[in-house]
Amino acid sequence: MTKAIMLQGTGSDVGKTVLVAGLCRLAANRGLKVKPFKPQNMSNNAAVSDDGGEIGRAQWLQSLAARTPSSIHMNPVLLKPQSENGSQIIVQGKVFGQARARDYQMLKPLLLEQVLESFAITLEGADLVIVEGAGSPAEINLRPGDIANMGFATRAKVPVVLVGDIDRGGVIASLAGTHAILSDDDRAMISGYIINKFRGDVSLFDDGKAAINRFTGWPCFGVVPWLKAAARLPAEDSVVLERLARGASGALKIAVPVLPRIANFDDLDPLRAEPDVELVFVKPGDRLPDDAALVILPGSKSTIADLGDLRAAGWDRDLEAHVRRGGRVIGICGGYQMLGRVVRDPLGIEGASNATPGLGLLDVETEMAPEKTVRNSLAVSVEHGVPLAGYQIHLGVTTGPDCARPSAVIDGVADGAVSVGGRIMGTYLHGLFGSDAYRGKLLESFGLSGQRRSYGQIVDQALDEVADELETHLDNAWVAGLLG
């Protein structure tokens, strides 16, 4: 029988994603056939799985850690926020519909059966499945119909390890409080806990572990230090952008406006990893830096709404000034659509039916359409003649005179547009900066030379380092029982 364990957190952003990835790599390094699973994810950082559907980017990373093909069944329900209280719902890789938060609560019992079906498929052929929860089981107001935490664990009979984040403070109270408010049945699913993101002398927390044991009776399965290697892994939640407001100083400054519905911002991670690049994430209220040589408009889950927010922040004027100074601009997916003359949405796919003026930096226009393009792709950069590999997840068709100068040829079809003079470029290809040859040529065009490290190797090495840290700091007996 396939073993399974579920990591749930005392709150969001406690590090569950990285711990699951590290455990997957640790198990894979020991020769186990291991797979990740997350019943429900909420993120606009999506990936195209190897079987051709949308999943959370985190589950794609975890499958990479597990050295196993990614699948739609590893993340059967993906919520992609489009507004403050509404999301697009992806079920088993395909668009299921849209729902406001309150309406989605009514849908969850119906979706649980598909979650359990996907879990059964994920179990097939695996020695171990490591499941990641979402948010916290302590959100007992959401417990009826829950499919992300204890609702799944109790139905699938998967034991739970609770993860607490000591870096944010209050970890003893969060663990003891979770124990206090869970129902007896839910509490019985928890086999122990892990303290994550510890800094300093771990022996100083011995009394803390004793206190948690007194309050809960749960054993501690390890105190994991702050994992420096995790900074080299793609991030899932946009909350991390608050901590990445400014990169290290570098010879080339690249500015990225952080829009409310930013999507697939891990496109930028390969640039952030370059030692001679300063990647600046610009928050609303701040101007785009005058000394940036390149501005990148990233993907968006709601192009029209984010275009309005871009103007409200004054970034349209900053971009015009940037271009007048000779600066360059790259737009990816939704960012590409914003660069054109107009974005039309006659069917009201993103909300009310309307036509919104674009930034006018490319002579193209976009019309939203209900058919969604979702696929992994191989491409070639037209400008540099080097191979690209990435993926497409988008709605809309973009046409216009500047499309006669495509930025890439994707799967044999011209894609994107380049302005007269070549300083403005748009593309629908996510992941292009992860293509080492293209990234090298792009940086060379700004006068930066030198050998570029393989970004794939950077991520792979970081996963190995996380796995090594977990092997060192987690309880040996617990690890042996899990991986034995």
TrEMBL record:
What's the short name of a Pfam family annotated to this entry?
CbiA
- GO BP annotations, alphabetical order: cobalamin biosynthetic process
The annotated pathway is: Cofactor biosynthesis; adenosylcobalamin biosynthesis
Q: Where is the CobQ/CobB/MinD/ParA nucleotide binding domain?
A: 5-238
Per UniProt, the keywords (alphabetical) are: Cobalamin biosynthesis, Glutamine amidotransferase
Q: Where is the CobB/CobQ-like glutamine amidotransferase domain?
A: 253-437
Q: Which InterPro entries match?
A: Class_I_gatase-like, CobQ/CobB/MinD/ParA_Nub-bd_dom, CobQ_GATase1, CobQ_N, CobQ_synth, GATase_3, P-loop_NTPase
Annotated GO molecular function terms are:
ABC-type vitamin B12 transporter activity; catalytic activity
- Active-site residues? C333, H430
- Primary role: Catalyzes amidations at positions B, D, E, and G on adenosylcobyrinic A,C-diamide. NH(2) groups are provided by glutamine, and one molecule of ATP is hydrogenolyzed for each amidation.
Q: Which family does it belong to?
A: Belongs to the CobB/CobQ family. CobQ subfamily.
List the protein's name: Cobyric acid synthase
